[in-house]
Protein 1
Amino acid sequence: MALAKTLWLIWDGASYALVVDLLQRGALPHLQRVVARGRLAAMAPPGPNSETPPGLMTLFTGCEEADHGTPGFTGPLPSSQQHSVLESVSGFDSRWLRRPPVWVEAAAARQTVSLVCTAFAPDPLHRVPYPWPYPTASYCCVIDGYNQEIARPQLVRLRVGTTTLTMAEQTYKVNRGKQGYTVYSPTGAAMPLVPFQQPEDLLPLWLDRTAGIGTYVAWLRAAGMPESDWLWCSAVHQFASYPPQPWPHDLGPFLGAGIGWFFSRGVIGKGPRLAVSTLQALTCRVARFFGEMAVQALAHHPADLMLFYQPAIDEISHQMLRDALADWPYGAAAQAMLAVHQEVDHQLGRLLDGLEDDDTLLISSDHGHEPIHRAIRPNILLRHAGLLTLKGDKIDLAHTHAVFHSSGWVLVNRTDRAGGIVPRGEYEAILQEVEQCLDAAVDPTTGKPMGLRHSRSLWQGDAPAPGDLFVWAPPHMELRPYLFGPVCTPPEIGGNHQTSLHDSPYLQALLAGCGPGLHDALLPTRNSGVATLIRRALRLATTATLGILAPSPGGRGQG
Ligand SMILES: [Zn+2]
């Protein structure tokens, strides 16, 4: 392909403020090369919710949240007699697509597209119908792992004798010998484990190589008296690409997420306490994997528009941001954040080596993070106010008036939903009761007002509102939908990005880029403006193509 390409890197969770700090310290030399040749800017993430699905959807479609309609990691189902107020779907579900991503416009204009490991792309296996026209000739390559998860990641305690382990319905045995541990597959193949200390120590294990299914295993040591041995297995994914490609299999199994969730469980005392260096090494390995994917995809499937996803910065920020900022930049947590940023930068350098002079490069994040110091559980407040009732460990819909949903929205249990009990005439009174309950909330440990805020009017767009009332906490606090336990708890994680309504400097998203497609371009101040830059770089007509791109019949609808 002789024509100029547009490369779009998504650095999930990269904070503009942190990246600028690291640039000033000279820690990101390859990004520095990009900025020296091009541009750097901060962007406001979408709102009111700024979790990854609305963040990515905003970048990809160029629409604000209330127009594309993706309200968070999960979205309540629209009001109907088929669904109760408790039902929701993943915010990553491509059926959320109400507006075309910019690559749909590019394909409609007969440009070529390669999409590497991103959400909202067409399903390479065609199991899920795409709500937009999908001219296969235009898609050089679509690679996905995230939507084909076969088994969740696990952390297994290693015993003195033999530990039995089930992964994707196959049984493996781990034997302890004099020197260490050995994993035996069902066919008897043996793989010795090495203690996990650096990214190279993560061992790929194919469960079904021809089907592209595999996992990674790592032997971890947890601190304590006595110290204990654990086996971490990454999530098991099927690696899918369209058209089918053998080269991703040569890179090893899909490595979609690191050990972050297990790490934070250990920190809050519900699992083994893992070292920060373990989290750092695994997350760097994730960064390297996605960097390698990008380099290989650029070599194998050059296209007019190429999109690459990189999850590592988001993962380390969720775990480390609070501790990192407390001792920036020299503490152990800060060093872990730095190492992951540097690995991502190193991978950027490898990609830059494959770029032509007339190519345009854009790097954007979907949101930054804010340090989290405390968590609040609004459903406990609703319970105390008699607005939410439990039966056993579940919500009793027959006696529940309102529910806080993890996306930040409170939903009134109206009679126009399955199992609803609040008639139209009582809706206003119930909503006022919810507002009063939130306003009156007091932190039991300090006796001071909790400072919860809420609004009925934060959804000014043409997508249906996800709920009745959006609730957000004061800065550095996060909201959790738990039904049990205290109202206020210590934080489960170190950084989060639930809402853009918080005034935190680290929440701003990153935009950087260089190349002729950016020449003289006005840089956006919001994430929703990036798609316009991509359209400009691709020389797409901005309004002419949009009109013909209605979702295809039958593709829409959440349930
Ligand atoms: Zn994200």
Protein 2
Amino acid sequence: MRVGLRSTAVKRDPEKAKRAAADPARPGEDCKAEPGTFRPRVDARRCEGKSDCAAVCPYDVFEIGPIDEGVYRAMPALVRFKLWVHGKKTAHTPRAEACRACGLCVVACPERAIELVRGADVAARGASSRK
Ligand code: SF4
Ligand code: SF4
């Protein structure tokens, strides 16, 4: 798995992926979407850097690493405190264009921090992504 300089390598967890695949609430298109049609959008206010998303994604879309300092400072005090407790880590999506909309990350996230959106919508709403 390729990771950024300060990101944590996350091993894929086939058991977690299997559980997520069986979840009836799984959204998306079952890996049938053209790459880049959909992207995961991470709500940095909810994300606690627990890395389940990275552990289930078949296309290596996520990296877990430090939250951007500017984004962090702009958050409400309570959210900043929660992020601080969790080491100020968050999920980034440096390979979002590889997403095939399987929906596994959405149901695997314990914080309900991920939604799938059509590619163009992500930038407009300020996702936690970096290239
Ligand atoms: S988006 Fe959810 S699953 Fe991914 S790191 Fe954040 S809390 Fe964990
Ligand atoms: S929906 Fe996209 S980002 Fe989420 S696990 Fe599937 S391929 Fe990865």
